[in-house]
Design a protein that fits this description.
31% helix; single chain; 6-stranded antiparallel barrel; disordered N terminus; alpha+beta; 5-stranded mixed beta sheet; extended
């Protein structure tokens, strides 16, 4: 095992002056995460029957109203299922039995990103310098660490075995630079573990895609018949720069270990602000745990105030012996360091805390994401102009945070205007984080629109009032008299669209009870519809 204390980086250089990088490529990373979840659900819930072997898995992405393959497991890849393929065609390429039990779900890029960051932290058991290589790789700077595991080959086999124990497929490569290790892990033939100190001998036979070039650059090279790295090595360096620019030469030099390259792009994880309190023995009393959390929140807010910052994502972690830690994440709409607001957001979580059968030994409150939050001048009295103030925006954001925590993250939405002629298409419902790109223009200037717009126009029978007699409205199985009618306002779909919606003549109708309704007459069928009303 790796030592518990990490020696300084200078000691690694003294032990072995030649840098080494281990790259772990996870070819089916996202589908492996789904397979792990299916195995856990099959073991934790007796009502769910998971076969001994996990079914084929395909992750899809919606493109132009079509389900397109985004990621495929190894079984599907063996059947020539690749990203970009339609889901229906992917099913046809599988065997009948595999297609019948195929597991399909949308791709979760954010979840895979978070899991890869966690896996990079997990890999620090092999070396203190690790980094995630998005979207499906790990960089480990193993300079001076190999002797702790019995050599380079033993360390590579150990990492491969440990990832396999986590049910994650991998290919491992060790090379002097991160660029060479990346290319060898993905394109070197043979076994799942490749070790190369002589990059010239091993990298020359690889395709030029092993240099991690942009697609446009790869296409230019393929057009002139350059297929492998050895072809590039035969071309004079001055010609490469003149034809393809400095970037190609830099990528080639990095892969061939011709210049000093940082072995790992980001070496240390970001330091997060947190507050921790260890309890005197396992604690099962919920009230004591809540009081501790409250105290930690106040301490965290004081730290944030000193640095003029606010928290955007806060994590509550309960450390439970002989059981998995209980973790709750809360995401805020806007940065905050108000302890009353944070405790109000945490209230639903604190109501259902589970200290575990053996109690809780420690409580940790972590500020995962922060943002600058400067002091603001408060008003001594209310604003007489009735205009929105920053305090009003802050109160609204706090209300949204509480509602989302109580009712779910998708429960609070925002309605934004859309450049459309028909009223029912002029507004779209989006997540609360969406912001308008400009001032709202819900309708043309000088026009009046109802405060309530029905999702769909409702059929009605209308007889407009005249100067000598009242009108009549038959709507929702009730007939009432109309005392006033104002209109018409003609609205139709834009002429450049293919929509065959007919022209509408909208009227404002007032019933005898004083209520105003918004109705229109379809000029093609002469049928009436009630579309909204004023409250």
């Amino acid at each position: 095992m790796a030592p518990s204390m990490s020696p300084p980086r200078a000691l690694f250089t003294a032990l072995d002056s030649n840098p080494l990088v281990l790259h772990a490529w996870l070819p089916t990373w996202q589908t492996d995460l789904v397979a792990r979840r299916l195995r856990r659900s099959g073991t934790r819930d007796d009502s769910i029957t998971i076969p001994p072997t996990i079914p084929p898995i395909i992750l899809t992405r919606l493109i132009a109203e079509r389900q397109v393959v985004a990621q495929a497991c190894s079984t599907c890849q063996a059947a020539q299922v690749c990203p970009g393929l339609n889901l229906a065609e992917a099913r046809q390429r599988l065997e009948p039995g595999e297609a019948q039990c195929l597991h399909v779900e949308p791709v979760q890029a954010k979840r895979a990103h978070a899991a890869l960051q966690a896996l990079a932290q997990w890999s620090r058991r092999f070396t203190p310098v690790t980094a995630a290589d998005e979207p499906d790789g790990l960089h480990l700077d193993i300079t001076g660490c190999c002797h702790l595991f019995g050599g380079e080959s033993a360390l590579a086999q150990r990492v491969h075995a440990e990832l396999g124990h986590l049910q994650v497929a991998s290919r491992i490569a060790i090379a002097p630079t991160a660029a060479a290790a990346w290319g060898l892990a993905r394109f070197a033939p043979g076994s799942a573990v490749v070790i190369s100190r002589n990059t010239t001998a091993h990298m020359g036979s690889l395709p030029i895609a092993a240099l991690r070039l942009e697609p446009a650059m790869l296409e230019q090279l393929h057009e002139v018949g350059i297929e492998s790295i050895s072809h590039l090595l035969e071309i004079p360096r001055t010609d490469l720069v003149a034809r393809y620019g400095q970037e190609l030469l830099q990528r080639l030099d990095a892969a061939m270990n011709r210049h000093d390259e940082p072995p790992v792009p980001s070496v240390e994880p970001a330091v997060t602000r947190q507050r921790y309190r260890g309890l005197q023995g396992p604690v099962r009393e919920i009230e004591r745990i809540r009081l501790t959390i409250t105290d930690l929140i106040h301490q965290l807010c004081r730290d944030l105030e000193q640095d003029h910052r606010g928290v955007l994502t806060i994590e509550l972690r309960l450390e439970r012996p002989r059981q998995e830690d209980l973790v709750h994440d809360m995401r805020l709409t806007a940065p905050s360091r108000d302890p009353r607001h944070l405790l109000a957001v945490l209230a639903p979580t604190m109501e259902r805390l589970d200290p575990g059968p053996d109690g809780t030994e420690g409580i940790r409150v972590i500020a995962r994401r922060e943002a600058p939050l400067h002091h603001r001048q408060h008003m001594a009295w209310s604003d007489v102009s009735n205009t929105a103030t920053p305090a009003d925006d802050e109160a609204l954001d706090q209300l949204v945070d509480i509602l989302r925590q109580r009712c779910g993250p998708e429960s609070v939405t925002r309605r934004l205007p859309v450049d459309a002629h028909l009223p029912e298409r002029s507004v779209q419902e989006l997540p609360w984080e969406s912001r308008p790109s400009g001032p709202p223009t819900l309708h043309p200037p000088g026009t009046d629109r109802p405060t309530i717009l029905f999702p769909e126009p409702e059929s009605a029978h209308v007889q407009l009032p005249t100067s000598t007699q009242l009108g009549q409205l038959c709507w929702r199985r009730h007939t009432t008299a109309l005392i006033d009618a104002r209109g018409p306002e003609r609205i139709t779909e834009a002429w450049w669209t293919d929509d065959d919606t007919s022209t509408r003549d909208y009227w404002r109708l007032q019933r005898v009870d004083g209520q105003w309704l918004w109705a229109f007459r379809d000029t093609r069928t002469n049928n009436w519809f009630v579309h909204g009303g004023w409250v």
